[in-house]
Amino acid sequence: MQVALVMGSISDWPTVKQTADLLTELHVSYDTHVISAHRMPQELQQFGESAKAEQYQTIIAAAGGAAHLPGMLAANTTVPVIGVPVQSHALNGMDSLLSIVQMPAGVPVGTMAIGNAGAKNAALFAAEIIALQDSDVDQQLQAYRKRQTEEAIESNAQLH
């Protein structure tokens, strides 16, 4: 697998599914895991420590609320971690965003936007990393960008 999709809770799946669907479209292989940073600390550490041996090229970690999952994974691996703040009920995802983006120097986490936009951008960002070494993924990204441009141009017709 090229990407590990990790979520703090199964309730994060509707957001992470946006990532999974786009990775599938881009021909990027992935697997999914539920690992709670707060309820499964040993499993989280083991997963992070074994990520490189498992040959993951990136980890996309989605979490809501306190959202320690991306940072704690990053603390346990040198595989690039992309954080997706899940939109929460209490603070509309701002708590998740700030928790993920405020990593101390030396433990980076690439942080995306809150919610579905961030989930989709995480897939694209992971694919861009993988495309540096995988020409098939690079071609899929080029085709995706071309479709985006064509759809935007065609949307002009809706104005008339």
What does this structure look like?
With 160 residues, this protein is of the alpha/beta class. It contains 6 helices and 5 strands. It has a 5-stranded parallel sheet with strand order 2-1-3-4-5, with helices on both faces. Strand 3 (58-63), helix 3 (69-75) and strand 4 form a beta-alpha-beta unit. Helix 1 (13-25) runs parallel beside helix 5 (116-131), helix 2 (41-50) crosses helix 3 (69-75) and helix 5 (116-131) packs across helix 6. The longest helix has 20 residues, at 135-154. The chain is globular. The termini are far apart. The mean pLDDT is 96.
Brief account:
The protein is of the alpha/beta class and 160 residues long. Helices cover 46% and strands 14% of the residues.
Q: Helical element count?
A: 6
Radius of gyration: 16 Å
Widest sheet: strand ordering: 2-1-3-4-5
| Beta-strand residue fraction | 5-15%
CATH class equals: Alpha Beta
Write the CATH architecture name. Answer: 3-Layer(aba) Sandwich
Helix content: 40-55%
Mind describing the biggest β-sheet? 5 strands, parallel
Please, how many domains?
1
Provide mean pLDDT, rounded. 96
Q: Look at the helices and sheets and give the structural class.
A: alpha/beta
How many extended strands?
Answer: 5
Give start-end ranges of low-pLDDT stretches: none
How is this fold's topology laid out?
Elements lengths: L2 E5 L5 H13 L4 E5 L6 H10 L7 E6 L5 H7 L5 E5 L8 H8 L8 E2 L4 H16 L3 H20 L6
Parallel strand pairs: 1-2, 1-3, 3-4, 4-5
